[in-house]
TrEMBL record:
Basic residues: bias regions: 43-54
UniProt-annotated stretches for the region Disordered: 33-123
Domain of life: Bacteria
Compositionally skewed regions (Low complexity) per UniProt: 68-78, 97-110
InterPro entries according to UniProt: DUF1058 (IPR010466)
Pfam families (UniProt xref): SH3_4 (PF06347)
Protein's name according to its UniProt entry: SH3 domain-containing protein
Length: 299
């Protein structure tokens, strides 16, 4: 018995229909689902992209607004740069003005010391010229103010008077009774006052001392009769008992004699001196070691 099978059934039985059905089941519905998913993802991306873009635009607007606000306060970078330089210049000017004012105030509070006059020592501020005496029995006179300068003279007489003319550090330019000038160290000088009886010496003692210095040692006190003194037979200087008219001769001082000045009172032409234990008065015009009209008060 034969049963009529429709064409579709035959195709199904032969495998044609299932393939078509599978194609329809896989093709039709699969295409629809994929398209739907693509649309959904596209919409999702558009949504997020739009949201992100909107956020970026909002952030950009905020940044721009902040820059605008900052620019309104500070100006452009170029202006800010020049403005900062001007501010620094003004600050430097203010500092310079303050420093100048402080210097002026300090100068007014502590004025510069006045210039030292020529008649005052630059080191001691004592008057120049002035007299001093040698402190030691051996004093070197040099050609310049320093030990590197050669020695010209050696003095062998403590208390020998010299006239100080200049000062340079610890050195003093001095002049002796013969007009010889040179530099001696300050430690070899003393402020005590002494005198010298000028003139050539007849001393015949230790010739080595005289030949070395050529500038006199102390001369011994000698004695002469009143008649010899009155006749002026020598150049000895009389040492008198007082400055009064009734004075007497105590001794005669040979040229080159060195002694100590005790006083040269104002208004008198006599000076009180001592020489090797002898005490008396000598006319000041006969002494070397005094400035004109100089007054020496007694100790």
């Amino acid at each position: 018995m034969r049963v009529f099978v429709p064409f579709s059934h035959r195709l199904f039985k032969q495998g044609v229909v299932p393939f078509a059905v599978m194609a329809l089941s896989l093709g039709g519905p699969a295409y629809g689902v994929g398209q739907e998913q693509d649309e959904s993802q596209k919409n999702h991306r558009v949504h997020h992209h739009g949201k992100h873009h909107a956020g970026a635009q909002a952030h950009a607007k905020e940044v721009k607004a902040a820059k605008a606000k900052a620019g309104a306060g500070k100006g452009s970078p170029h202006a800010a740069k020049h403005g900062g330089g001007a501010a620094r210049n003004r600050a430097l000017e203010r500092k310079a003005a303050a420093a100048a004012a402080a210097a002026s105030a300090a100068k007014a509070a502590h004025p510069a010391p006045p210039a030292v006059p020529d008649n005052v020592g630059t080191e001691t501020k004592l008057p120049l010229p002035r007299f001093a005496s040698m402190r030691a029995d051996r004093v070197y006179m040099r050609r310049g103010p320093g030990e590197r300068y050669p020695i010209d003279w050696v003095y062998h007489r403590r208390g020998y008077p010299v006239k100080i003319e200049r000062e340079f550090g610890v050195w003093r330019l001095v002049e002796d009774s013969d007009g010889q000038k040179g530099w001696v160290h300050q430690v070899t000088l003393h402020s005590s006052r002494s005198f010298l009886i000028p003139g050539s010496s007849s001393y015949d003692g230790d010739a080595s001392k005289v030949s070395i210095t050529g500038h006199a040692d102390s001369r011994i006190v000698t004695y002469r009769s009143a008649g010899e003194v009155a006749r002026g037979q020598n150049r000895d200087v009389p040492l008198m008992s007082s400055e009064k008219p009734d004075q007497k001769i105590v001794a005669l001082l040979e040229p080159g004699t060195v002694g100590t000045i005790k006083a040269c009172p104002q208004g008198l032409s006599w000076c009180h001196v001592t020489v090797r234990g002898y005490d008396g008065w000598v006319e000041r015009r006969l002494l070397w070691g005094l400035l004109p009209d100089e007054i020496i008060q007694p100790d």
